[in-house]
Amino acid sequence: MVGRRSGPAEVGRHYAPAPQPRPTEEATGVLFPTMTFALFFVVVLGVSWKLHDRPVQWKLFVLAASYLFYGWADWKFCLLLAGSTVGNWLVALALARARDDRARRAWMGLGVVANLALLGFFKYYGFFVDSVLAALQPLGLAPTALLVQVALPVGISFFTFCAISYVIDVYRDEQEPVALLDFAVYLSFFPHLVAGPIVRVSEFEPQLRRRRNPDNVDATRAARLICRGLFKKVVIANYLATAIVDPVFVAPSQHTNWELLVGAWAYAVQIYADFSGYTDIAIGIALLMGIKFPDNFDQPYSARSIQEFWRRWHMTLSRWLRDYLYIPLGGNRGGPHAEYRNLFLTMLLGGLWHGASWNFVIWGAFHGSGLAVERWMAMREPKPAYVDLGPVESLPPEERGRRTGGAGPQRWSERLGMSTPPASDDRPGDEATAPIPYRPDEVTVVMDRPSVATRAEMNPWLARLWVFHFVVAGWIFFRAPDLGVAISYFVSLLTNWGVGSLVTWTVLLAIAVGMAGQFVPRRIGDALEFRVSKLPPMAMALGVGLWLVIINLLGPQGVAPFIYFQF
């Protein structure tokens, strides 16, 4: 039920979403879909509207509210956040004042290393110690001095990534240093502090300088996002977790392959509904306060390639990995083999970022390998690009065949005359092929590197089915409490034939509803939002209230924590 206490947190020494008793809300901070947060936000929103014409007071109040939100779990976490804020602000200031390239590189390196060291200690200390102890155990060595309990602050991954992006952007001269108060509000702003989206200073700080007017707030869109997010989180995600996902992942060998298959589908829907629902709420409440966040999900399960999936899933993280990891590693420069390596390393490190466990390493390597293989296959299937090199008739017969793929000039003339140049695949360094006016007597075809969507365009639904199940296979590693359970899951999926009792029509309906949202055209939601915006305020309020009652009735008892708190 909305308003109940619950939920696991990113606290304690655990490195995978293993089944465990859920700590109380006090151990995790204020969770979005709870009555505690609702009361907190009503007060914050009301006061912030009163202070909208006093920017300094508004910033100070929002900063205090954000630290209260973050310190609800443990006030000591606020010291860590404050230290990160001041430290990164000073590094950026030193970067801006440095005139020597060597000094600038040193300051940038110091900032990045300090942030990674902070994240590494809190998030990966236990993983490192457990791995060392496992290696020493056969030798009869068990140095218990290594066993130190380290509490993992909630949301440290997100605000650390924000801090790193700020330092690097200042180093690249893409961002001017901002005032300490502005940077403190940016890093601690409570809607995105715990779970993203990962917002950049260049997207956030200019909005602090603009005059905010409550009358200009897009309340209709905010209400739509919040209501949609609550439905996905409370009804779809929570139900699937309790009905089938948690049971099958606890002991996969005790369930039939049909239960395991549906359970894997259910987890794919659960993690999407949970994560996208949470970020929908975050974007909505930020919008009510006059701050716009970038979108974080765009119907990812409708993707027709693995690359397209990552352009649609956790988009702010994907672009962060692209801009601050993939491109610095070399991107697609240096030839195909360098590109494959960089894709693999980016996803491998992205997997490790999600959690300190070998499961996440394998999950990242799985997706990195998939992206690399997909790129390799695309390289082997060239498609025509439009380049005018002179009349076809002027080419030798063997050259005509090579350049036209064996087709006659007339056939290619017809195809080229009806088609458009292939678009870029939007990877860093790529440029779209410019169209060239078609002249029947001057048609020359050369082969260009295609988009990875080439195969998908031939049979889009088959491509979607393949990509979805590739992602589902990866989610099994992602969700399993350890590597042994993941392997047992795959083995049981292929051997334990049967139907089972966990697969009910309600479970299948919840999966279907979750998947249906991947294919609903945006214009339908936009049209509905436009019609709602024309309603009187009282009617809108009654509609939102009715929707909350429906969510409360349909959702299971208790509010499961945000799913990423488990990692």
The major pleated sheet works out as: 2 strands, antiparallel
Strand content: under 5%
In angstroms, what is the radius of gyration?
26 Å
SS elements, strand count: 2
Structural class label: mainly alpha
Count helical runs.
Answer: 22
Report the average pLDDT across residues: 78
Shape: globular
Strand order of the largest sheet: 1-2
SSE string, helices as H and strands as E: HHHHHHHHHHHHHHEHHEHHHHHH
Give the uncertain stretches in residue-range form: 1-29, 384-390, 402-456
Q: Ends: how far apart?
A: 24 Å
Tell me the helix content.
Answer: 55-70%
Describe the secondary structure blueprint for this structure.
Blueprint (H helix, E strand, L loop, with lengths): L34 H16 L4 H17 L4 H22 L3 H36 L19 H16 L8 H9 L1 H4 L7 H9 L9 H32 L6 H32 L17 H7 L2 H15 L6 H19 L3 H22 L3 E4 L10 H7 L5 H10 L26 E4 L5 H5 L1 H20 L3 H13 L9 H12 L5 H12 L3 H18 L13
Antiparallel strand pairs: 1-2
Helix pairs in contact: 2-6, 3-4, 3-5, 3-6, 4-5, 9-10, 9-20, 9-22, 10-18, 10-19, 10-20, 12-13, 13-14, 14-18
